Amino acid sequence: MDRFPNAADVDFHSPLDLSKAAVAVLDADGVVSGWASSAQRLLGYPPEDVLGRPAARLLAAPPGQRPSALCGASRPRSTVLDLRRQDGRALRAAVTFSPLAPRGVAATVVVAADLEAMRGWEAQLAMLQGLATESPVGLTIFDTDKRVVWGNVSTDLELAGIAQYIGRPAEDLFPEGEFISRHHSPDEDQVMEHVMATGEPVMGMHYRGRAPADPVREHVWSCSYHRLVDARGETLGLFEESLDITDRYRAQERLSLLVRAGKRIGVSLDVRRTAAELADVAVPQLADEVLVDLPPAVIEGRQPPTGSAPGHNLLRMHGRTPEDFRTTPVSYPPSSPQALSLAAGRPVVDDSPPGAPDAAGGAAAHPCLYVPLLTRDAVLGLATFRRSGNPDPFGPEEQTLAVELAERAAVGIDNARRYTSQHAAALVLQRSLLPQHLPEQSAVEVAYRYRPADSRVGVGGDWFDLIPLSGARVGLTVGDVVGHGVHAAATMGRLRATVRTLALLDLDPAELLTRLDGLVAQESEAHAQEGPSIEGLGVTCLYAIYDPVGGRCVWASAGHPPPVVADAGGSVSLSALTPGPPLGLGSLPYENVELSLSGGSIVALFTDGVVEDRHTDIDTGIDRLAHVLTWQRCPLEELCDRALSTLPPGPQTDDATLLLARTRRLDSDRVADLELPSDPALVAHARTVTERQLENWGLSDLSFNAALVVSELVTNSIRYATGPVMLRLIRDRCLLCEVSDRVHTAPHLRRARRDEEGGRGLFLVAQVSQRWGTRYTSSGKTIWAELAIP
Fold this sequence. Notes:
The protein is of the alpha+beta class. The chain has 20 helices and 32 strands. The strands form 6 sheets. The protein has a 6-stranded antiparallel beta sheet, sandwiched between helices. A 6-stranded antiparallel beta sheet has the order 14-13-12-17-16-15, with helices on both faces. Strands 2-1-5-4-3 form a 5-stranded antiparallel beta sheet. Helix 7 (246-264) packs antiparallel against helix 8, helix 8 packs across helix 11 and helix 19 (703-720) packs antiparallel against helix 20. The protein is elongated, with a radius of gyration of 39 Å.
């Protein structure tokens, strides 16, 4: 659909242009000797009514000068005349008399146009002149080779002279600039080629760079591109509109920064994490790096010291998450800007010349802003905002913003300090305890129960988890660290995190347990001299993967009781395979067990506390759980309660963890498979099939991105693999695109150089998908990508 349906009505030709204006010819006596059809359209007189008659009869009012006098002029003359139309109405017209070179008979060409149309055209010219000379909007014209042709005064000022860039390519204007809009390609050449090829304008792209006229300060422009065509519809090039929105953009950034700070700073009730939240919010919009220096007492949850010299005995914190934190002692001399900021309780801007050493011994070659962390009239520490890639100094508005962020961080750090002081032990245990919420999945419906053995401490070594995997699959795991207390809980937390990390590598269950076994053995050896090791405690684990597309469930066990499975009819089965050895022994291999499950089957994963106690052996407990599962049509929450209600009353000797998963099968209409021979010509067919399938699913909005992902993945497989390539599309909570081949080598994401013709495929896939990765199978590999469904 045409975005500008009235564009054809916009005409910049002069009303006195011979293709539009009324034209007549007068002799030396002012008699009409020629009458064009354009004159008839303007005044309505046919030629026979005016030819051979005085032109004065066409006047509605006597002019200041006789027409014969105007005809006798030696050079063109213009005037305004009131002309009489054939219907009797008067028409005020702009008229130009142009004498012809005499060749025996003197004659004058008269050109006339409606005065009102003439004034409108002059206003258009004035507008164009204003855009060229007075408008703050930069206008630049490029030819079809994307080389500079012309620029208005605003562009001339920004470039410190447009003349030096005439004939040069667009990338020469701002060689270090970059597009920061996410809704278009970051490559200006691609954007310009797209506009010239399709005629679709690209509007409102944000571009960041440094203008040649102001190379010190970073600017942001809003840029739009439009194709230029001539009267025949042929492309002449394109023009760019650019408006400097630096102040507005930075104001919006500051506002969004404050909004984000209100949501993210101080929500963790952890001193280290709050410092990381400050850095996470401020980087990179306000600074390239944020350092938070705190006294050890604050980090440990104690009261901040008073009476000590400012800037002494602080710890500089690095990293954005508690796992990445490293603390380095730092001390500032009394004359340093950091010590001045701490002593005065106000922000201080470091205006040291580039290359001068700072108080910590480093080079202060870039702007720094030091802001004290103040709360309740106490100084908790110092926040340092540092710029490395941006040499612009911190302005007054940015200083105010930094103070606001520091105040929020100070309140959060103080709250976290108080909370840490009261609940330090509880926080350590909380990080290691079981998940409080399992994500909803299309593959399974889950319910779980966890009952610690020692209700007074509330900590143990059991864990469970549900891990979303690629291809709509899920990983289910339970594990048990023998023992109770802080050490068992901490060990459990580490192992659960390790299992989740390994699961996200898409390893099969036996391979995952093998790697986990090796890690446990290494850690046991490393800590053998420091107290009870993981091996000494004893660790068991079961890991299963369920695929809702084919109903295939694969599991492996490391010394853990196998799952109990109840099919949709209520029939319960137990695995006959003996579990492998517990983790850390490394004596025997682990084996996979594969089951085919119908939709509605229930898989029960549990620890021995559910089926074993001091009065009941494990076989009896498993039979008791199997009997509960025969009621598989009941809600899972009810089944969980039934299973734990069979435990004997009174204190339990072991933790009891139960995870129930009711399987679902994805309908065939939500899965589309396509086998492709190893022929590059079939990539287009794969795209077509993808677009058609998405249209059937009502996901046409994803067609472009999905077709791009499929095209890149299929192309890679056909190029580097042998044999057929399998394409699978799955409509789940997101759109899943999978391409499988028989080669175990996977391509790697890299950043291609501008002069390279390839190497951008996976980069494009990563940009348009929310997740992507590779999983390996016995026959090859599968590269997958997930696209969010709007």
